[in-house]
Design goal:
This protein is mainly β and 407 residues long. 3% of the residues lie in helices and 40% in strands. It contains 2 helices and 36 strands. The strands form 10 sheets. Strands 2-36-35-34 form a 4-stranded antiparallel sheet, with no helix packed on it. The chain has a 4-stranded antiparallel sheet with strand order 3-4-5-6, with no helix packed on it. Strands 9-10-11-12 form a 4-stranded antiparallel sheet, with no helix packed on it. A hairpin with a 4-residue loop joins strand 4 and strand 5. It is globular, with a radius of gyration of 20 Å.
């Protein structure tokens, strides 16, 4: 049976504002799903956009959460045109631009309806490390480029589309395919060293979280609600932990995907599930440290003594890292389809369906800053450079940068 995938962002692909939804439903129904109105912020902090650049074709139709990869003062991005670009985080200047998996069409120009579309494009954001930038494509391509020059080092292929950023480590490059298989590749030439196959449920949210690593183990969230720890060297399972039960009368009710970013602490891993569960897990043995009935489709971020996440209703939560108890919650961004939070100095930042970025005070969750980075939805998690610049990529390929706000 073919895998069926639910694109949770189906409305987002076409709706960049509330007005798009009006007329689809009755007035009451449309009001119930419209993003909450934004209210004026009193005593707002100064939020200034340093630069903004359109980098190519959009990925809106793919329903993905692509984000830039960061190493030093460089950003690396990929797009559905099959290009990988290196960008200066300081100026927004393009340092190199490599077309490695172009989208093209073939067929008769006279009989345009007979044209055959040949899919190309890079559906997974890039991973970076050890002098390599690695990106995955719609057809299972995995392409490694020289991080300094953009020259192609090697390419290989996995068994299906790659929609998560590869994890680049000195020993292996970890690549997730969308059919449930995870591959450990040799960084030198891309040769396959191991494969882990977990399979996928009949129905799942479109999206895979990127693997994270502590140097010895790679941690991955799966569509069946589990987190798996794999040994980087040989792909053997160190432990498996169920974050959320797959329960219900039908496939939709049973969706429990762990698709958002995992957050790795000193000796604990934090994961959240589409089924509404968030769990802290010991990295030593995979045992739960605590579990809370709050969670969502996006991931988590760590800040000091707290873990921060946004739930499907648009509430942003700060949970105590040691107990999971709620420290604060912010409900003013209801139905705005928030991104995974990012930590920007002393602030928590989330993007939304209308292209806004919101800065929340980390100690109490009060919204203190806002800027409209774009008219297009922001789905990918905002990223922060080592020097404190926040960068965000919207669904139409626009990259914007913000320096740290004045404290």
């Amino acid at each position: 049976m073919l895998r069926r995938t639910l694109i949770i962002a189906a409305l987002l692909a076409t709706a960049t504002g509330c007005s798009t939804l009006k007329g689809w439903f009755g007035d009451k129904a449309s009001k119930a799903i419209e993003p909450a109105e934004l209210t004026e912020i009193s005593s707002a902090i100064a939020v200034d956009k340093a630069w903004s650049r359109k980098l190519g074709d959009e990925n809106a139709s793919l329903g993905l959460r692509q984000r830039p990869a960061i190493e030093g003062d460089r950003l690396y991005v990929s797009n559905d045109e099959g290009r990988v670009l290196a960008i200066s985080a300081n100026t927004g200047d393009v340092l190199w631009d490599s077309e490695v998996a172009p989208t093209r069409k073939e067929g008769s120009r006279l009989f345009f309806w007979r044209r055959k579309a040949i899919d190309g494009g890079l559906s997974g954001g890039p991973g970076v490390g050890n002098g390599l930038v690695v990106a995955g494509g719609r057809n299972g391509e995995v392409i490694a480029l020289d991080a300094e020059t953009g020259a192609e080092r090697w390419r290989t292929k996995v068994t299906s589309e790659v929609i998560a950023a590869p994890l680049v480590t000195p020993e292996r490059i970890i690549v997730r395919a969308n059919d449930g298989r995870t591959f450990g590749l040799d960084p030198a030439d891309g040769s396959r060293k191991w494969v882990f196959d977990r399979g996928v449920p009949a129905l799942s949210v479109r999206g895979n979280g990127a693997p994270v690593s502590d140097g010895q183990l790679a941690y991955l969230g799966y569509d069946d609600g589990t987190v798996v720890a794999l040994r980087i060297a040989d792909g053997l399972v160190a432990w498996t932990q169920l974050v959320a039960e797959s329960e219900g009368r039908n496939d939709l009710d049973r969706m429990a995907d762990v698709d958002g970013e995992l957050a790795l602490g000193y000796s604990e891993l934090y994961a959240t599930s589409f089924a509404g569960q968030t769990m802290a897990i010991s990295t030593q043995n995979g045992r739960p440290l605590w579990n809370r009935d709050t969670g969502g489709y996006s991931g988590l971020a760590l800040l000091g003594d707290r873990v921060v996440l946004s739930d499907p209703s648009g509430t942003v939560w700060a949970l105590d890292r040691t107990s999971g108890s709620a420290l604060w919650r912010q409900e003013a961004l209801a139905r705005r389809w928030l991104t995974t939070p990012a930590i920007h100095g002393n602030y928590v930042v989330v993007g939304d369906v209308e292209g806004y970025l919101h800065w929340l005070r980390a100690d109490d969750g009060v919204i203190v800053g806002r800027d409209r980075a774009s008219r297009a939805p922001i789905r990918g998690t905002p990223q922060v450079t080592p020097t404190g610049t926040l960068v965000v990529l919207d669904s139409e390929g626009r990259l914007s940068a913000y320096p740290s706000p004045a404290q």
